[in-house]
Amino acid sequence: MNTQEYIESGIIETYVLGMTDAIESAELEQYCREYPDIKLAVTAFEATLEQHALLNPINPPSTIKVQLFESLKDEFVHPVFMSAPTKQSAKVFDIKPFLKYIAAASIILLVISGAMNLYLYTKLSNSSAQYQAILVEKTSLQANNQLIQAKALDLFNSMQMMTDPNMLKVSMPGMPGKEKNYATIFWDTKSKDVYILPNKLPQPTLGKQYQLWAMVDGKAVDAGMIGDCAGLCKMKNIPSATMFAVTLEKKGGSSIPTITEMYLAGKVS
After folding, report:
1. Which domain holds residue 198?
2. Among 9, 57, 1, which residue's Cα sits nearest to residue 34?
3. Does 186 or 138 have the greater pLDDT score?
4. Half-sphere exposure of 260 (CA within 13 A, CB side)
5. 11, 18, 55, 130: which has the highest count of C-beta atoms within 10 A?
6. Whose CA is closest to 263, among 176, 169, 171?
C-alpha cells in the first residue's frame, strides 16, 4: 500500500473532522494499527486542530454577565435566622439560592460551550475547504508537470529521429507572398512514416487547420492534419511521393486541397 498517497488523499482530515462514514472510519482505524505513518498523520492533524483552537479562543458575549446579575438580583438576601426561647440564636443558611447560582453557572458554561463549538466548527470547515483547495492545486500542478515531461520526451524523440540517417529530409519553403513560412518533412525511408516539423507556420484562424498533402502519381493524397505537436508531428504513412505541400483548410480537413490557401510546398529530391 502507498501510505503517502493515502495520507494525501484527504481522508485523514475528513476522519478527524467526523465526516467519514462507518466503513471509511473502520478502514482508517485499521490502517492506523498497521501503518505507523498513517497513525502519526492522524495524531499530527488532531494536534494542529487543538493548537488552532487554543490560539484562537472566543469570549462569551458581554451581555451574558449583565443578564445573569439581573436575573439573580432578588436572590442576594441576608441569611435566615431562627431563634429558640431558651438558647442563643444561631445562623442557618438557606441552600436554595446557591442551587440557583449553580444552575446559572451551568447555563453560562453551556452557552460558552455552544459558542466555542460553533466557532471551532466554522474554523474547521474553513480549514477543510482550504485544504481541499490546496489538494486541487497540487493535483493541477502535478498534471502540468506530467504534460511538460511528456512534451520534453517528445522533443527528445524528435531530435533522435531527425538525426537518423534513414530519414529523408524534404524542405518546404513558403509560397509567393508567404515567404516567411517554412516547414520540414522527415520521411522514414524504411517504414515510410511521414513526420513534419512546422518550423514557421502562423497560428491558424478560428475553425481552420493546416493539412499536409503528398503528390502521388500526379494526384494530391491526404497525408494528415497538423496538430499541436511538441517537435515532430507524425502524419500518415506515404509509400511514395514526388512532392509535399501544406494548405489551410477547414478544421477536420478537406478531401481535395484548396490551392488558393497553399502555404508551403517542397519537391522530394
Report:
1. 167-267
2. 1
3. 186
4. 0
5. 11
6. 176
Question: Looking at the structure, do residues 42 and 124 belong to the same domain, yes or no?
Answer: no
Angle at 207 between CA 241 and CA 203, to 5 degrees: 70
For residues 144 and 210, membership in a common domain is answered with no
Averaged confidence pLDDT in the chain: 78
Please tell me the distance from the alpha carbon of residue 257 to that of residue 211, in angstroms, as a whole number. 8
In a domain, 197, yes or no: yes
Cβ atoms of 202 and 181 within 8 Å: the answer is: yes
Identity of the amino acid at 75: E
What pLDDT was estimated at residue 81? Answer: 42
pLDDT of residue 80: 45
Average pLDDT over residues 234-260: 95
The partner residues of 166 in beta bridges, in order of sequence, read none
Amino acid 66 reads V
Q: How many domains does the chain have?
A: 3
pLDDT tens digits for range 124-156: 666 666 667 777 776 776 666 665 555 555 555
Model confidence at 76: pLDDT above 60: no
Residue 127 pairs with which residues in a beta bridge?
A: none
- What phi, psi does 238 have (nearest 5°)? -125, 110
- Name the pTM for this structure: 0.45
The answer to whether residues 23 and 87 belong to one domain is: no
Please compute the mean of the pLDDT values over residues 36-50 and round it to a whole number: 84
Distance CA 52, CA 113 (A): 17
Beta strands at 262-267 and 167-173: parallel, antiparallel or unpaired: unpaired
Q: Measure CA 99 to chain center.
A: 57
Same domain, 139 and 69: yes
Separation in Å, CA 263 to CA 191, 207, 260: 27, 17, 9
